[in-house]
Amino acid sequence: METASTMASVRHAFADGSFRRMLIDGKWVEAASGKRFESRNPATGELLATVAEGDSEDINRAVLAARTAFHGPWSRVTPYERQKLLLKFADLVERHFDELSTLDTLDMGAPISRTSGLRLRVLGMLRYYAGQATSIHGETIPNSLPGEIFSYTLKEPVGVVGAIIPWNGPLAATVWKIGPVLATGCTVVLKPAEEAPLTSLRLGELALEAGVPPGVVNIVPGYGETAGAALAAHSGVDKVAFTGSHVTGQSIVRASAGNLKRVSLELGGKSPDIVFSDADIDAAVPGAAMAVFANSGQICSAGTRLFVEQRIYDEFVDRVASFGTGLRVGNGLDPQTQIGPLVSEQQLDRVTKYLSLGREEGARAVTGGERLTEGPLANGYFVPPTVFANVRDDMRIAQEEIFGPVISAIPFTDMDDLIQRANSTMFGLGSGVWTRDVSKAHRLARAIRAGSVWVNCYQAMDPAVPFGGYKMSGYGRESGLQHMEEYLNVKAVWIKTA
Ligand code: NAI
Ligand code: MG
């Protein structure tokens, strides 16, 4: 068996410890301040790259480039040409897919089995947005005014977009922001997360290779409080598309007030995953387990509040726990690994605090519950799949987003009571229902206040199906036709003809 230490020597052309610049106006440049920060592999601590550290001055330059590009020749590029560009970009991403998914694994830790499994999702998104590029149109709308007045609408690109993404899936997250930008004719300044900036930068190279004009896609790595905040507040930005925590989402909204820029927010969750005793239990066990353990729980829509019908509660929770115990934790580069490290020491601290808190609150860890430090795992931020039983709705581990591989298992009996409890968090992103009873499925699909309801599956995603939040999980939708609207303005035109 390969160990984490032998694998630490695996070389990657884009993560060989060298310096990576930021992309502004089609050029790779240093930070105005000359500052740099490090990006390290969370499985081993190995230095992958030093990266130009953007701040407000770099954001100013990038926004200016994006503004100039928006009003320049890019504004006259036809839908067909934007479609071709997206298809070319998709082909390049496909050609370099293994390199890109490995870069995600190195930079943020997710197992290669997961990152390489996102091929259909990533390429599907790019080709979906390519399709949308030639499908954007306004409407002819009959009005009831006297005389001859013709009225119609135009759909116009919203302008310069500030995109701010987290670290939990840089490849897919970057494509999810850049795709609609290119489809609609917007321009973008993208700020990757400080924990994992490399895949976004590599995608910037491929975008240029595809022929994306200078200034249309700018990528400025840096910290949230500096580069991120400057982008969110910038008066030259027409829209911010943000993915991350609800706390940062709130500061984005406050920062948007200066020029009333449009904002779309894809924030966190504490999603209920509900298992009825009539469910196909053999499917529900791995389904409910991986709804949380996938990506070490670092997924916004993870089904972390596991509601199980009382009469199967003990047995079901034990089975989910032993499924979790059987998962292989290790370096994400090992093809056998199912659970990689958490992204950073900060994330490790956050998750292990919740592990202690859960015990203090009276919950019982059926499996997991402590950081792993044996052998090569000592060099990384590893937390095993953890299942807490005896969880009450009012415990903090049942209310707050942990963003680690931690299930809070809660029993239920009565359906009306269950619905009320499932909805009683501040979030509303995902939800799951496991049942063979179609009436229960329909009833819950209506009653749950969340942007997605998955019945007898979890985390299904498709470029054509909208995704987003209710309540404090944010507003706006990504994927689907709604996503395009987030990047478009509607203009009404009236023409008096007689
Ligand atoms: P975060 O929301 O602070 O960071 C996400 C992105 O926002 C990063 O690019 C960051 O640099 C940027 N950012 C941070 N502060 C900013 C500001 N004031 N203005 C503009 N941009 C800013 O999330 P973080 O710190 O990485 O993780 C904290 C917690 O947030 C996690 O434990 C998890 O619970 C939650 N989270 C949820 C995510 C989701 O997809 N729902 C993704 C990442 C984190
Ligand atoms: Mg933060």
Description:
- It contains 16 helices and 21 strands.
- By secondary structure, it is an alpha/beta fold.
- The strands form six sheets. A seven-stranded mixed sheet has the order 14-15-16-13-12-17-18, sandwiched between helices. The chain has a five-stranded parallel sheet with strand order 9-8-7-10-11, with helices on both faces.
- Helix 3 runs antiparallel to helix 6, helix 3 crosses helix 8 and helix 11 packs across helix 12.
- The structure holds 1,4-dihydronicotinamide adenine dinucleotide and magnesium ion (MG).
- Magnesium ion binds next to loops.
Question: Key features?
Answer:
single chain; 498 residues; alpha/beta; seven-stranded mixed beta sheet; five-stranded parallel beta sheet; 21 strands; globular; binds magnesium ion
Distance between the termini: 82 Å
Strand order of the largest sheet: 14-15-16-13-12-17-18
Class inferred from helices and paired strands: alpha/beta
Q: What percentage of residues falls in helices of 4 or more residues?
A: 25-40%
The average pLDDT is 97
Coarse shape: globular
Would you identify the regions where 5 or more consecutive residues have pLDDT less than 50? Answer: 1-6
Strand content: 15-25%
Taking the sheet with the most strands, its summary is: 7 strands, mixed
